[in-house]
Amino acid sequence: MESVVNVQGLSVWFGDTRVLEDIDLEFRQGELMVLIGPSGSGKSTLLRAVNRMNELYDGVRTAGEVTIAIDGRAERAYGSGASVARLRRTAGMVFQNPNVLPTSIRQNFSIPLRNVHGLGRNELEACMEEALRDVELWDQVKDRLGAQAQSLSGGQQQRLCFARALALRPGVLLLDEPTASLDFRATNRIEDLIVRLKERYPILAVSHSLGQASRIADTVCVLSAGRIVRTLERSALQDPGSVYRLAEEFF
Amino acid sequence: MRRVAEILLVITSWVSSLGVVAVVVALVAFLVYRSASVLDLQLFFGDVAWPDAVFGGARVLHGIWPAIAGTLILIAASSAVAIPLGIAAGVFISEYASGRFRATITFLVDVLAGTPSIIMGLFGFSMILLLRQTIAPDAGTGLLVAAVCLALLVLPYMIRATQNALEGLPAEMRLLGASMGMSHSQSVLRILIPAASRGILSGAVLSLGRAAEDTAVIMLTGAVATAGGRGPQSLTDKFEALPFKIFVIAAEHNTAEELSVGFASALVLLVLTASLFSLTFILQRSLERLWKA
Questions:
Q1: Contacts of A99 in chain B (CB under 8 A)
Q2: Which of A109, A174, B174, B251 has minimal CB crowding within 10 Å?
Q3: Which residues have C-beta within 8 Å of that of residue B237, sequence separation ≥ 6?
Q4: What pLDDT does A251 receive?
């Protein structure tokens, strides 16, 4: 299988603090890779290095190379002449807290789709419907697309965020602890959704829960103090003993 | 002990809030009471029929219409300068400037905010003197000079309100536009400014109110006690304005009725600014609804 994101020798500093140290990582089409580790281990920073979101903070320095497949061609994310906007468009991102715009459900789609893809009204409606169907939210919101997105429940808001990311036609999904703020039932639905989306998109996700990682991941990378200290494949995750030993060792 | 402190806090908050309400009500009631005897159309237009005064340009020699017209045009002109410039500067400081440059501008805005209005008036007055001695011997004080100096006076309110509104937005909202591949300017224009528009509105309200009531600036830059019974006809005209009118009446009135006209003018100024606030409020809410819908 071909590699979608390839990270080589990646180090990231915030000021004088080295948050990531010499990371190598590769994930492929159809793969769901989950990064876990104690808080402060650098997992979110690693995720955000892929779409260069770390650069929005002051005093960040990045070294190493990230290669990402954009429209079928491998491109260097940090190469000179790389388009950051195109890179971020390719990498659909979902945040920890449901990050809906404080507008109607419809505007949550039309603001980004108009500005990023220049879509007109009709294309926009079709695109929104398709994305909302993908996340199984369409039936619940189709009669109130003009309602405020913030009036939805937390789980629905998060699914709206997934739909918005999908509507932008991403090549890869980056999920930053997408269930951390949700209750048990909403978490289950989001996990089902992630597993379903895996068929169509390669997914890199950060998780705070080893249990979640072992439920959904094809590959788990364990980070500790800015380094990848363990990589486990799906078969190893099915063995309760090895998961337990992992928990003992790192959490 | 803790319980007592809590009760005291609650009582103090209630008394303070009620105090504010009481003061406003008392102020308005006092103005109404003192001006009741002169509150009619004659107050505004004297003996002239109002359509002739408003649309026909007839001279109103005994009425406050010229001062109302002067104040309205003055506010419009200074807002036209201060509001766009203030929003632009606030957006720049919050979203584009960084490091030492940003600190320097912020400091200069603070200096401007701390400048007394009389200094702004003197600044406008000296500018005109300078112009007369150099490139424009015919330059004089007037509506435009007053409006620009007023704009300078209210600019820091506008800048600071815009900056605070933008910087108060949640951190994740700032990341959102970028994460979807929107350019920084798209994200500022389509997400951050609309989301901050209520805070920006409060800056505009503050600016309007400040521009409406200021007397020190305009008395040095072109306001006069009587301007021929008409509102300003051009941007270089001397003009009447309500706050200056009130000041002159308070200082020079001869009869009790003249003083009542002063109180009535104060009431009119209050109603005028309140109407402008409402107008600004409605405008902001309609724009916001457009963005949210």
A1: 172-173, 175-176
A2: B251
A3: B142, B143, B222, B227
A4: 66
Which mean pLDDT values do the consecutive 10-residue runs of chain A (251 residues) have? Answer: 85 92 89 90 92 90 90 84 88 92 94 90 91 93 93 94 94 92 90 92 90 89 89 80 73 66
> What would the two tokens of residue B142 be?
């007037």
Rounded CA-CA distance A168/A188 in Å is 25
Would the CB atoms of A116 and B191 count as touching at under 8 Å? no
pLDDT in tens, B46-60: 888 888 888 877 888
| Mutant choice from A44, A50, A103, A204 vs B, greatest count of B C-beta within 10 A | A103
Instruction: Name which of A88, A115, A148 is nearest B179 (Cβ-Cβ).
Output: A88
Residue A200 CA: distances (Å) to CA of A137, A167, B289: 18, 13, 37
One-character DSSP codes across B265-282: HHHHHHHHHHHHHHHHHH
List the single residue in B with minimal CA-CA distance to A168: B180
CB contact under 8 A, A88 and B181: yes
Identify the pLDDT of residue A156.
Answer: 94
Alpha carbon of A60: minimum distance to chain B alpha carbons (Å)? 14
Q: What is the pTM of this model?
A: 0.86
Query: Which domains can be identified in chain A, with CATH numbers?
Result: 4-250 (3.40.50.300)
Please give the Cα distance from A216 to A204 (Å, whole number): 12
Query: ipTM of the assembly?
Result: 0.88
Q: What is the dihedral of CA A65, A70, A73, A77, to 10 degrees?
A: -20
